[in-house]
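Here is one chain, start to finish.
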Amino acid sequence: MNSLLLWVRAASVTLLLFELVLLAIRFTHAPSKLEMFWFSCTLTVVAAAGFLPSGAMTLGIYTLAVLWTVGMYACFLTVERKPWAWHAAVGVALLVFLIVRVIGLSRTLPFYLLFTFLLTLLSLYPLILLAGICRVNHHPLLFLYTAATAFQFAALAYDYLAIGSGLPVFRLRVFSGLFYSIACGFLLSQEAYLQGRGWQSLHIRLGVQEKRLRQAHSRLIQTENTLLLQDRLIVTGILAAGAAHEFKNTLALIQTNAGFALRRRDEPSMHRALHLIMEQTQSGGKAVTELLDQLLKQGRERAGTVALKSDLDLLFKMIRTGCRREGINLSVDIPDRMRLTVRRGELEQVLLNLVRNAMDSITEQQGISERTVEIRSYIAEGQAVIDVRDSGGGIAAELQNRVFDLSVSGKQSTGLGLFLAKTLVERNGGSLIYIPADRGSCFRIVLPCA
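Its structure:
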């Protein structure tokens, strides 16, 4: 047995010297001097453990030194730059060992068992770090090094326990030191280790970075899915509010037609008003579908030529009736030959929405003498322009730049009307803008001429 130990020690010394010379040669070419330092420390300390005397105190302290050195190297490889918990754990174990040694209980079997248990717990930390590297990079040499490290920890723990428990003493740390030196020699022989940036010339760190990138990508996908769900909920809310707004406009038309019928006692006018009420009632049931078409599709209605004055004459009459009921004077100035290329139903919705906003703005103002709404149309630069003016309170200065934004309103409402109006006008190839006025408000619709 002694001759075998002698040969094993001789082989360990030979390997250690060769590897230290190789490390010295590569020192100037190593980008990471700190990595080379910790690798050299683990190699030297583990190999030297086979030459220690079989004293309990010496072996116990040296085992802690081996654990601490290998743990620091594992921390460096896993980019653990501040392993304060590891320093504290090894320090506490060393303090316990020294205190028990001072009070004279270090030679008892319970203490040998307790300290062996502490050594086993401490060895888990570097082994877990090394196992994590092996999971990322499935290279045989990485598994070989991790196995050699685990064998070294187990040999030191067994040798220490055998001193105080009566177990056979095999000096396993001598054989484990040779195994560890062989594993380190394979590392040094592969791809000029320590001339790169880690195990297998950056493979380790690239694997760790790849894992982090995959985790970051997964988090980004989760965040994107969450945002998509929020967007869908927002769109659902917009569509629901838009459907309610469109249905509200339909009810306003029905109310206007009913008022028109009450004011006109002759039977033809009442019949025509009741017929319009029936049409608007039927269209109210399709408000949600038509809103979806207006926002997301091209809509069912095709753009065509609309004679603004004659084709919308009935709409203007109904609007005039509603204005009279509120004590508002409506003025309509439209040239006879004004023709637009537009979807008629959508233009009617926009005009009705703008006029109703103007009426609300006027009725909210108390004590104003002039209560007027003006619809004026003309040609400018080859485009048809429709201005809707009112003598109401206007729009606050802080809201003028955001008046068409979603959910922005100067009154207690959804803020969806102007947003939808602008959407409809732009879908017909035009534009809707707000023009500040000295008194009241002015909304300008610009559409292509026919």
